[in-house]
C-alpha cells in the first residue's frame, strides 16, 4: 500500500492539534487533545503517541500508509538532533528527545521545526501565501513570532533562530516596554495581544476624551479585540492606538522586506482576526519603510488558515524534508 498520507502536529501549551492529510494538503481528519503540562510535561509525548495510535487504528491505517509525521513546537528546536528545550509553556525546561521517542514508538519518520516556521509553511502551501516561493509570515498572538521562506526554503540560520521577528527592537521611546526575553522595546511587547493593551493603557493615561475605551478599561475588559472593534466603529482613541501599533508592525515588516525581499507578508495569529483594518493600516505605513523599488511589489495579506495553519504546515514539513 502506498505511503500517501501525512500526519501534522501543532503542539501548543493548552491544546495539541493533529491532522491526517493527503500529499496535496487536503485535511482528511483533524482532532485535538489537551496538552498535559503537569510533572514537567512528562506525559506530553506519551499522550501524543497514544492519540496517533488510536487514530491509525480507527482509520485502519498502518505505518505503511503514512509517509511521515511533522510537528511544530514552541521552545528552542534543534532540527538535526530532533530535540526541544526551553518550551516553558509546556513545562519542558530540560532537553526533550522528541524525534527519537516518536520514531521509536510509532515506527514513522518524524520531522520537527519551530511552530511559527511550520505555520508559515502552512500559509504558503494552502493559505494566503498562494504557494509563493518568497514569503514572510508574522504571527501576532500571545507573543509575536515569524517564519521566513526564500526560494521555497525556510530560513533557519546558524542556530535555528532565524525568524524571531518578535524580538526585533522597534522602540526606544515611550513604548519601550520590557519584553519576556529580557530586552525592552521588542515588537512582541507592542504588537502582541498583551502589548496592544499596554499601548492602550499608556494612551488612556496620556489622553482625556470621550473614547469608549475609558469605560471598557474601568470594567477591566480592555483587550486587543475590543480595541480593534471600537476602531472599526470610528472611536478616535481606538483608531489612534491601532495606528500606532500598525506603524510599529510596518516598521518591522519593512525592514525585514528590505533585507530578504519577499513577494508577500502574511499576518496571522489571533490579532489578525481584526482583518481589513489591520491589513490596510499596516499597508498605509509600510511604504514609509520600504526601499522605494519595493513599494509596489510587496503585498500584505491576512492569513487564511487560522488554527489549521500549524497542522497543515507540519504535514508539508514531511514533504520538504523527506522528498527533497
UniProtKB/TrEMBL annotation:
Enzyme class, first EC level, given as a word = transferase
Q: Which InterPro entries match?
A: ATPase_NBD (IPR043129), ROK (IPR000600), ROK_cs (IPR049874), ROK_glcA (IPR004654)
Q: Which UniProt keywords apply?
A: ATP-binding, Kinase, Nucleotide-binding, Transferase
Q: Tell me which EC number(s) this protein carries.
A: 2.7.1.2
Q: Which cellular component appears as one GO term in the record?
A: cytoplasm
Q: Does the keyword Transferase apply?
A: yes
Provide a GO biological process annotation: glycolytic process
This entry's Gene Ontology molecular function terms read: ATP binding; glucokinase activity
Answer yes or no on keyword Translocase.
no
Under the heading PROSITE patterns, the entry gives: ROK
Which Pfam families does the UniProt entry name for this protein? ROK
Which family does the entry's similarity section mention? Belongs to the ROK (NagC/XylR) family.
Protein name per Swiss-Prot or TrEMBL: Glucokinase
Phylogenetic classification of the source organism: Bacteria, Bacillati, Bacillota, Bacilli, Lactobacillales
Amino acid at each position: 500500500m502506498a505511503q500517501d498520507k501525512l500526519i501534522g502536529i501543532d503542539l501548543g501549551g493548552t491544546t495539541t492539534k493533529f491532522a491526517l492529510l493527503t500529499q496535496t494538503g487536503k485535511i482528511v481528519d483533524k482532532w485535538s487533545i489537551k496538552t498535559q503540562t503537569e510533572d514537567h510535561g512528562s506525559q506530553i509525548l506519551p499522550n501524543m503517541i497514544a492519540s496517533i495510535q488510536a487514530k491509525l487504528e480507527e482509520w485502519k491505517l498502518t505505518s505503511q500508509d503514512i509517509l511521515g509525521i511533522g510537528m511544530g513546537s514552541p521552545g528552542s528546536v534543534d532540527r538535526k538532533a530532533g530535540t526541544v528545550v526551553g518550551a516553558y509553556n509546556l513545562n519542558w525546561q530540560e532537553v526533550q528527545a522528541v524525534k527519537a521517542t516518536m520514531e521509536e514508538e510509532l515506527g514513522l519518520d518524524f520531522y520537527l521545526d519551530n511552530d511559527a516556521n511550520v505555520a508559515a509553511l502552512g500559509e504558503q502551501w494552502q493559505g494566503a501565501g498562494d504557494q509563493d516561493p518568497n514569503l514572510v509570515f508574522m504571527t501576532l498572538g500571545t507573543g509575536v513570532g515569524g517564519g521566513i521562506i526564500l526560494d521555497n526554503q525556510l530560513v533557519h540560520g546558524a542556530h535555528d533562530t532565524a525568524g524571531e521577528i518578535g524580538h526585533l527592537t522597534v522602540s526606544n521611546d515611550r513604548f519601550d516596554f520590557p519584553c519576556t526575553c529580557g530586552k525592552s522595546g521588542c515588537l512582541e511587547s507592542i504588537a502582541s495581544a498583551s502589548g496592544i493593551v499596554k499601548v492602550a493603557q499608556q494612551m488612556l493615561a496620556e489622553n482625556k476624551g470621550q473614547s469608549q475605551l475609558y469605560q471598557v478599561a474601568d470594567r477591566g475588559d480592555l483587550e486587543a479585540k475590543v480595541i480593534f472593534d471600537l476602531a472599526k466603529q470610528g472611536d478616535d482613541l481606538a483608531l489612534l492606538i491601532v495606528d500606532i501599533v500598525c506603524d510599529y508592525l510596518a516598521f518591522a515588516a519593512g525592514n525585514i522586506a528590505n533585507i530578504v525581499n519577499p513577494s508577500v507578508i502574511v499576518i496571522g495569529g489571533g490579532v489578525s482576526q481584526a482583518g481589513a483594518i489591520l491589513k490596510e493600516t499596516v499597508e498605509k505605513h509600510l511604504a514609509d519603510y520600504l526601499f522605494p523599488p519595493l513599494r509596489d511589489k510587496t503585498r500584505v495579506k491576512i492569513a487564511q488558515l487560522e488554527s489549521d495553519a500549524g497542522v497543515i504546515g507540519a504535514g508539508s514539513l514531511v514533504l520538504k524534508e523527506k522528498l527533497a
